[in-house]
């Protein structure tokens, strides 16, 4: 590969670690609900993680030598804030992220499903209370709610019942998905905005997106008929840049997604990136790397993989990032360094 012009910086390389890595490496226990619920304890754990990252990988610019606090409310349930808001039980495990248990009687609940009231929701009120504590302590607070998307949340809350509804009762599925979408809007307007002090109208002009992790479990035709209209309504509620997070294989959904007119995308491992670029020639596209293959690639294989991603998704300025997420203890320090230093060996600026 010829080195690009200096005006074309190498894509950002992101590398994050799973709770299993933190547990195996430093003995961190993620099952203590008190740490998740106590906003000061959570902020301090985050600071310690960034300090330990710097201690371990400071030579490749991970972590911080003297981390400043990052006060954030909404992390209390990990990625399952919306599931908790709907009333699902959230389980805390020693070496895993918080897990939400779908309603065991989900099918019976579908027809009567109602969006929770923020004023009486213990989850929403706890997040708002945590924000007050953090603002008093640190002078500011961000909101860390992971909103997901309508289908994401429906699967997390209702399990296979939402798939049954899509197949057998599409009108019911549409109603449920629209409630999931509206619940995200409610959480944004009535929880996130009060946490940060943002004006709702202004906040809706900011960057947003849809997480569509479970889309691969339904075919593109069903997505187009049932889920897409809800995703379109959801997207219209925001006027800023809109991102698609599709962490599965993208190929079957390339055309189905066109009506959403995403401003940016991040696509999962195994996707045909060259075909994605051909289909969306001017859309910035980031790529997720299959963390499971990294340990057996070695330095040469990692370089070849990154070179292939850049070749397939180029031009360079349209690749915001190449990302590894939730790396476990099976990923060696050498592998981490090999990934993050690849631009040096490829003789590309980075």
Description:
The chain is an alpha/beta fold and 350 residues long. It has helices at residues 19-26, 33-37, 39-57, 81-86, 106-109, 122-138, 150-158, 161-168, 170-196, 200-203, 220-236, 273-279, 298-313, 333-340, 342-345; strands at 12-17, 72-73, 89-91, 99-101, 142-143, 208-211, 242-246, 264-267, 285-288, 321-327. It has a six-stranded parallel beta sheet with strand order 1-10-9-8-7-6. A two-stranded parallel sheet has the order 2-5. It is globular. The model is unreliable at 1-7 (pLDDT under 50).
Main attributes?
single chain; 350 residues; alpha/beta; six-stranded parallel sheet; 15 helices; globular; disordered N terminus
Strand sequence of the main sheet, in spatial order?
Answer: 1-10-9-8-7-6
Number of helices: 15
Largest sheet: 6 strands, parallel
Q: What share of the residues does DSSP label as strand, in percent? A: 5-15%
Q: Give the overall form.
A: globular
The number of strands is 10
Instruction: Report how far the terminal alpha carbons are from each other.
Output: 15 Å
Integer-rounded radius of gyration: 21 Å
Element-level helix/strand string: EHHHEHEEHHEHHHHEHEEHEHEHH
Assign the structural class, choosing from mainly alpha, mainly beta, alpha/beta, alpha+beta, or little secondary structure.
alpha/beta
User: Which range best describes the helical content: under 10%, 10-25%, 25-40%, 40-55%, 55-70% or over 70%?
Assistant: 40-55%
Question: Runs with pLDDT <50, length 5+?
Answer: 1-7
The overall pLDDT average reads 95
């Amino acid at each position: 590969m010829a080195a690009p012009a200096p005006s074309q910086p190498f894509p950002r390389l992101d590398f994050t670690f799973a709770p299993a890595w933190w547990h195996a490496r430093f003995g961190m226990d993620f099952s203590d609900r008190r740490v998740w619920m106590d906003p000061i304890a959570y902020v301090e754990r985050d600071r310690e993680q960034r300090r330990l990252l710097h201690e371990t990988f400071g030579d490749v610019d991970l972590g911080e030598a003297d981390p400043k606090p990052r006060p954030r409310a909404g992390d209390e349930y990990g990625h399952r804030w919306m599931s908790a808001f709907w009333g699902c039980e959230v389980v805390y495990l020693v070496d895993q992220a918080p897990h939400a248990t779908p309603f065991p009687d989900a099918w019976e609940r579908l027809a009567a499903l109602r969006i929770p009231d923020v004023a009486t929701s213990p989850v929403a009120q706890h997040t708002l209370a945590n924000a007050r504590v953090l603002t008093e302590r640190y002078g500011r607070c961000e909101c860390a709610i992971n909103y997901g998307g309508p289908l994401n949340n429906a699967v997390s809350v209702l399990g296979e019942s939402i798939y049954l509804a899509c197949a057998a009762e599409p009108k019911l599925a549409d109603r449920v998905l629209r409630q999931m979408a509206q619940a995200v809007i409610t959480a944004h307007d009535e929880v996130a905005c009060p946490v940060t002090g943002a004006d709702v109208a202004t906040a809706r002009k900011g960057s947003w997106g849809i997480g569509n992790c479970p889309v691969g479990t339904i075919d593109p035709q069903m997505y187009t008929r049932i889920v897409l209209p809800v995703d379109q309504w959801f997207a219209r509620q925001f006027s800023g840049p809109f991102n698609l997070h599709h962490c599965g294989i993208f190929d079957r959904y390339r055309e189905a997604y066109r009506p959403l007119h995403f401003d940016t995308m991040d696509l999962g491992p195994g996707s045909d990136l060259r075909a994605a670029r051909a289909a969306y020639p001017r859309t910035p596209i980031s790529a997720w790397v299959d963390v499971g293959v990294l340990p057996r690639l070695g330095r040469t294989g990692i370089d070849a993989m990154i070179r292939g991603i850049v070749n397939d998704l180029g031009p360079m300025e349209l690749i915001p990032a190449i990302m590894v997420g939730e790396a476990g203890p099976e990923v060696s320090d050498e592998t981490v360094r090999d990934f993050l230093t690849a631009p040096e060996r490829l003789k590309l600026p980075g």
